[in-house]
Amino acid sequence: MARATGNTVVDARQERDLKKALGSVWVRFSGSLEDQYIHHSIRRARKLIGRSLYVLIALFLVVTVPVLVLVDDPGLAGWRWFGFWPLVGALVLLFLAVKVDALTRWVSTLVGLALMVALAGTLLGAIRLADTFLGQVAAFETVYVLIIGFSILRLPPTRTLFWCLGSLVLALTLALVLGWSVQPASLLLFYGFPLVVCALNGYMLDASARHSYANNLLLAKESDRLRQWRDNADREARRQRLLNEFMAHIAGNPRVSVLLDQALAFMIEHTPAVAGAAWRLADDGLHQEASRGLDAVARGRRHLPREGLLAGALDSEGDVTVRHDVPAGYLDLETGHSRMRPGQVLFVTVRQGDDEPLGILELAALTPFDDDARALLESLAPSLAYALVAAMGREDYMRRHRQAG
To answer: Exposed end of the chain (fewer CB within 10 Å): N or C?
Structure first.
């Protein structure tokens, strides 16, 4: 599912685990899928923050500007230190996280630090300015930051909870060092309860996102499977069509040399091959019956003993054999006034069933033969074998008829 989940590949075991996990409330991914989901959620968080950053800035201004303009309180200077500048710093960190591409790998850390700085500041403001209007403003800001952290920033909830608890530890440590009075009941009211509620909401949102991610993985897997089936069906239809064309191409009871020349021409036309030769196997060795695109030296090899590369291909088990390391001077290609060494040579052994080979075709190409080309040649070999048996039988009959007078 490259489009929806970033090139994530799901194997059969992971697919079974995903189907089982979808029946549970909390989807836990197995193996590398969990890490891939974390990366996915961080990319999603970066995208969401990029879309909502200016909305967060506008919300910050709506809350803070009226306080700065309308409130005339001796504690306003202290509130600026805890309820204004930390939020400015958090917004700057968010801006760097989503707008500077060089910091993409540090998105999770920057967003977490922004959340921690904002919460630590508003907590200190609520503790320092307790029982005042500006202290209530700082407490409300704390709740707003918690809501934004779990509902808008959308980092993995466990990481968000870690940064939130880190900000609480930092704020309480500074308050105790500075000798400020901490009211547990107030702290529980404006931070403890909101943190629990926001964390539960964050985990619920993450559970929904995990279900969607798992469903997308399974849908992509099924889509890939259907695409593969369609490709296989199209490949099989093309192979059958070419087989029918090949049968029509070699039809008409031609002589052996004509039959092999027609077969060679068809194979060169429908594969990466650019040249080749066709050999008939006899008791005294191999006889070249047809050739196309070869240089004069290769064409001049009219009779060869059963040895070398051709013998190795004839003795192999499969109908198609590929030779990557082509010896120098073997089956060179003729291109204008120059000779070119082929990059790959493929041998198609013509045999009827498991009997002794009847002949062999060698195809030379500048580029490798792909799997489709090999599969096509393997499907053509049996049909060519039947036609070659018939052609050789006719020639043998005509030869014996002439000899009989």
So the answer is: C
